[in-house]
Design goal:
Blueprint lengths: L3 E4 L8 H11 L4 E4 L4 E3 L2 E4 L10 E4 L10 H7 L3 E4 L6 H9 L3 E4 L2 H6 L4
Parallel strand pairs: 1-2, 1-5, 2-4, 5-6, 6-7
Antiparallel strand pairs: 3-4
Amino acid sequence: MKKTLIIGASNNPDRYAYKAAERLLAHGHEIELLGLRPDAIFDKTIDTQRKQYENLDTVTLYVGPQRQPEYYDYILSLKPKRVIFNPGTENVEFESMLQKNGIEAEESCTLVLLGTGQY
């Protein structure tokens, strides 16, 4: 199973970040949550402080490209195997930075990847 950090986590069931958390757990993946407001969903805390995580496989982004620069150094420091740019989060500049650091940048949808068994 792939330990995944959701950046842009939300307690709103209508948000795709919430749905991704729900589906990742349903598929047996471990999740960590980072959002703007402290809360909890599915017995997991939505952190507002950036923490270092061990053995992180994937970061899945639910923040737009205009807000991503503040996360560049943080995500690079986590050294995930890949970063998923969900629809609306595509960012050529950051994708290039990731690839130069040996991190896979994938423009995709976490929910679709899970639904089709490609996660």
